Amino acid sequence: MRSLCKILMAIAIALASLPASAADPMAESLFQEALALMGEGRFRDACPKLEASQRLEAKSGTMTVLASCNEQIGKIATAWAQYKEAAAIARTEGRKEHVDKATELAAALELRLGKLRIDAQTPQGGVQLTVELNGSVVPEAIFGIAFAIDPGTYTLAAMAPGKQTWSATVEIKGQLGTTTVAIPELEAEKPVAPPPPMPAPTLALPPQAPPPKPVVVDRRIPPWAWVVGAGGLVSVGVSAGFLVDQRLASSTLDDRCGGAARDRCTPGYDFAADHAREKRDFGMFLGFGIGGLGLAAASVIGIVTVGPSSTSTTSRRATITPWLGPDAMGASVELGF
Fold first, then answer.
1. Highest-confidence range of 25-34, 173-182, 273-282, by mean pLDDT?
2. Fewer CB in 10 Å around end: N or C, the chain?
3. pLDDT band of 4, cuts 50, 70, 90
4. SS (H, E, C) 187-245
């Protein structure tokens, strides 16, 4: 009930300190939103809005309400300092009644203020000491002075060049009293031991490779090349024989049947036999000729590409496959390695 009365009093002071029209509309909007949040008991949401409003437009009434808001969330030291600041602003505004109210509220909080005193010897051993409170550097001028601080748990750390860092945890309760922390003489840093020397590397000689085995080189032309070459020559010769016979059959057909047209044959002449002979001989000529040329080419390749090989050689062979068609015959060559 008493806290509610303080809030209402602070709000009344703030409202009384407002001019008829706000100089900064944004500051006024933030202030009104904060008042609504405080009426709902949402002080942690209201305080940041009041801070923003005060930064935009500093007023004793806004600062008084902000101090009351922080008091409700347990920031007693912060609220106490803000009541003091609200009184100072009210003096510049010429509002004596507001000065008295803010001063009265600040005096009431002094009965609950917890304080912290840091006793430190600086410098320590000729080096400058740095003290941090929850990560923030504490000014050296405050050492030895009890200063108001909000209730809570704090981490105090002290450090100096060449010294080991010292730290302690301090708990400040929301009640009247001073907690004193004495920072001792910092110990020198422990020398870092050099790493142990690395053992000398042991050089291992690579194993001796066995001597290479002698390689017997064989540069002889493989027998299959000679066989294939001979087969090619025979096939070419047979092809030439069929060509000669085909020419003879063509000549007889031209004499007996009237030249190129072959439409007037001598009576009693067997045109079909010589015509079939002509076609067969031409097909045999082509078949044996192409087969012979292929065999000859394979033989040349075998002779030209022969190279050195070890005593362990891979067998090579040539396979000749004859073929016979309705009007011609020939042969195909397959080389195996």
1. 25-34
2. N
3. low
4. CECCCCCCCCCCCCCCCCCCCCCCCCCCCCCCCCCCHHHHHHHHHHHHHHHHHHHHHHH
For residue 173, give every residue at least 6 positions away whose Cβ sits within 8 Å of its Cβ, in sequence order, or none: 114, 151
Six-digit token pair at 288?
Answer: 């044996």
Render 22-37 in DSSP notation, one character per residue. -S-HHHHHHHHHHHHH
CATH class of 114-183: mainly beta
pLDDT of residue 320: 55
Phi/psi at 119 (5° precision): -100, 115
d(C-alpha 235, C-alpha 237), whole Å: 5
CB neighbour burial string for 64-76, b if at least 16 within 10 angstroms, e if fewer: bbbbbbbbbeebb
Instruction: Of 50, 62, 58, give the one whose Cα is nearest residue 15.
Output: 62
| Model pLDDT, residue 222 | 75
Q: How far is CA 271 from CA 30, 208, 274, 278, in A?
A: 124, 86, 6, 11
Half-sphere exposure of 129 (CA within 13 A, CB side): 24
Tell me the three state secondary structure of residue 72: helix
Is pLDDT above 90 for 257?
Answer: no
Closest C-alpha to 64, from 35, 36, 85: 85
Whether the upstream peptide bond of residue 123 has omega within 30° of 0, thus cis, is yes
Tokens standing for 273?
Answer: 């036999």
Give percent of the chain with pLDDT exceeding 90.
35
Q: In terms of pTM, does the model score above 0.70? A: no
Q: Say if residues 153 and 136 touch (Cβ distance below 8 Å).
A: no
Asked if residue 107 lies in contact with residue 172, where contact means CB atoms within 8 angstroms, the answer is no
Please say if the pLDDT value at position 335 is more than 60. Answer: no
Place of tokens 């001028």: 141
C-alpha triplet 274, 280, 281: angle, nearest 5°: 85
Q: Which residues pair with 137 in a beta bridge?
A: 132
CATH number of 2-111: 1.25.40.10
Q: DSSP characters for 101-116?
A: HHHHHHHHHGGG-EEE
